[in-house]
Design a protein that fits this description.
It catalyses: tRNA(Ala) + L-alanine + ATP = L-alanyl-tRNA(Ala) + AMP + diphosphate. Its main location: cytoplasm. Its cofactor is Zn(2+). By secondary structure, this protein is an alpha/beta fold. It is built from 14 helices and eleven strands. Helix 8 packs across helix 11, helix 11 runs antiparallel to helix 12 and helix 12 packs across helix 14. The chain binds adenosine-5'-triphosphate and magnesium ion (MG) (3 copies). One magnesium ion (MG) binds next to strand 8.
């Protein structure tokens, strides 16, 4: 079953259960300064959960584009290292706004996954986790659905604090949250990894495919949990992960959509080895960068734009690693439009714009990438304690346009670390100086015209690494 067909089947399934099909919202959350990017399907419904916005429907379903490259949910460092994480992915979701609750939510999910009419996934490959204190969810799984008890794992708060466990979901540090129950797929004993909740959980054997959140609280900045106006449901399933299951492959990068993108990357970069990690990173970053531009973000030195720049420069550097001396990233946009343009007409519409923004960033970074790499190689050859100094990382940032995480990414590949505290101290010093001297900013306004604009939240909200402070 192709990714596109799974997306369609999901929306159709929930539509047949009286859910309104709602289009994906922008990656730049509207009116939500607490959030860097849309990181889950529920983001566009935040105010509905809070009771501050009313819709004409009480059940909805979406295929939501998400980016997790900063803030509370950040998977940038996982890309290229796990089989299941992307910076950009599509989250399939169904939502109840004070309509149905635990019982229907669990039964809907199980029916969609296991019914022969829909996904028809073998029941004995599925594992379930639920929140330790949630007897209700546990009983539904064990008694109604009939999942064997040795495949239902109750996860408590031992993972780090009362509301920090994997089975208590929150969109960010504040906002709607609640206990959850998750469905995992066992990809087989030849792959490393242990069942959810085990010390080896982090591997790629048991892969989480679907999270069903029972939205019950609104967490405020001081940590207080106020009940929501009505118990609600928010679910999220990664399209790429369920596609891997349906296509009988173990990694998201082996699904139809990614195979085509990887081939395009290999063509453009003349890479021989389709398994090369760099191809995967470039294919992943191509998607997040393109959709961020579609949603009005431009590479810049601050806020959301800086996160985009960081992702783009990582992709460009991986091309360089593959021996690519000329600009290549913008040439990949056509392949992405071919793969995803049908589902996202806004991508097709913005194609020329995306190519232009990519090409401009490539051109700018090309001026310093080669020299910066030489500086880094020289430093790598010299250091003895396997740590790049903050000094070198700062020079690479300041003179050669290497974001800190780019230097760290290269260092990590070679088994080195970077002195982050040393780098931070130098950054802080520079910030103090520029605060008094006025700030130099790259002006892109003459280069590109945009429908939507990105909102800069200021350094007090977003650090230069993109996380919310
Ligand atoms: P994981 O534990 O694997 O990092 P998560 O618990 O952080 O996933 P949720 O916040 O529960 O993920 O999101 C709901 C679903 O979205 C997940 O069950 C998964 O299928 C999918 N998903 C989450 N993060 C990613 C990602 N970075 N890339 C692809 N799919 C993802
Ligand atoms: Mg995660
Ligand atoms: Mg998880
Ligand atoms: Mg989860």
């Amino acid at each position: 079953m192709k990714s596109a067909d799974i997306r369609q089947a999901f929306l159709q399934f929930f539509n047949s259960k009286q859910h309104e099909i709602v289009p994906s919202s922008s990656l730049v959350p509207g009116n939500d300064p607490t959030l860097l990017f849309t990181n889950a399907g529920m983001v566009q419904f935040k105010d509905v959960f809070l009771g501050e916005d009313k819709r004409s429907y009480s059940r909805a379903t979406t295929s939501q584009r998400c980016v997790r490259a900063g803030g509370k949910h950040n998977d940038l460092e996982n890309v290229g290292y796990t089989a299941r994480h992307h910076t950009f992915f599509e989250m399939l979701g169904n939502f109840s706004f004070g309509d149905y609750f635990k019982q229907e939510a669990i039964n809907f999910a199980w029916e969609f996954l296991t019914s022969k009419e829909w996904m028809g996934i073998a029941k004995d490959k599925l594992w379930v986790t639920c929140y330790e204190e949630d007897d209700e969810a546990y009983t539904i799984w064990a008694e109604q659905v009939g999942v064997p008890k040795d495949r239902i794992i109750r996860i408590g708060d031992n993972k780090g604090g009362r509301y920090n466990s994997d089975n208590f979901w929150a969109m960010g540090d504040t906002g709607p949250c609640g206990p959850c129950t998750e469905i995992f797929y066992d990809h087989g004993s030849d792959i490393w990894g242990g069942p959810p909740g085990s010390p080896e959980e982090d591997g790629d054997r048991y892969i989480e495919i679907w999270n069903i959140v029972f939205m019950q609280y609104n967490r405020s900045a001081d940590g207080e949990m106020a009940p929501l106006p009505a118990p609600s449901v928010d679910t999220g399933m990664g399209l790429e992960r369920v596609a891997a299951v349906m296509q009988g492959v173990h990694s998201n990068y082996e699904i139809d959509l990614f195979q085509n993108l990887l081939r395009a990357v290999a063509d453009v970069t003349q890479a021989k080895d389709l398994e090369d990690k760099s191809l995967r990173v470039i294919a992943d970053h191509l998607r997040s960068c393109a959709f961020l531009v579609v949603d009005g973000v431009l590479p810049s030195n601050e806020g959301r734009g800086y996160v985009l720049r960081r992702i783009m420069r990582r992709a460009i550097r991986h091309g360089h690693k593959l021996g690519q001396k000329d600009a290549f990233f913008h040439k990949l946009v056509s392949a992405l439009v071919y793969e995803m343009g049908d589902a996202y007409p806004e991508l097709t519409k913005a194609k020329a714009q995306v190519e232009k923004v990519f090409a401009a960033e490539e051109e700018q970074f090309a001026k310093t990438l080669e020299k910066g790499m030489a500086v880094l190689e020289a430093a790598l050859a010299e250091v003895k304690d396997k740590q790049i100094s903050g000094d070198v990382a700062f020079t690479l940032y300041d003179t050669y346009g290497f974001p800190f995480d780019l230097t760290a990414d290269i260092a990590r590949e070679r088994g080195y670390t970077v002195d982050e505290a040393g780098y931070d101290a130098l950054m802080e010093k520079q910030r103090e100086q520029s605060r008094s001297a006025g700030n130099f900013k790259v002006d892109y306004s003459g280069l590109v015209q945009l429908d939507g604009a990105t909102e800069f939240l200021g350094y007090d909200r977003l650090t230069e690494t993109g996380s919310i402070t």
